[in-house]
Amino acid sequence: MLHLEKKQMKDQSKKVANLKHKEQLEKSRNAQLMEDARKREDNLNESSIQIQDSLRQKEERIEELEEALRESVQITAEREVVLAQEEQALTHSEKQVEDLLNAMERVKQELDVMKARLSSTQLSLAEKEGHLTSLRAERRKHLEEVLEMK
Question: Mean pLDDT over all residues of the chain?
């Protein structure tokens, strides 16, 4: 019986040792799992910080781009106003040129009419001067005749 008890004791010791070994392995595995979990958590925290930094940088870049876009839109609007003013001034100038060309054409036509009148008047004047000259000559002739009669 002693032998049986020793054997049972030995078996029990083996079982205890085996259980202790399993427990040790389990503790080691749990410690490794905890370490892995901690590392993953650290990595996640680090990734989260990196993502937050990246988001912040992107938000800052978006704000810069929005500001640049606002400035560009304002500059474009100002240029469009200037362009509209220049187009209006050009249209006004073209209208003035057209009006001046029309006025010049009217003056040219009036000049042609006046030239025709002048030519006609000069002919009439030449005729009248010729007639006047002949009348003077005739008068002189009559005066001479009258003087000779006396």
Answer: 92
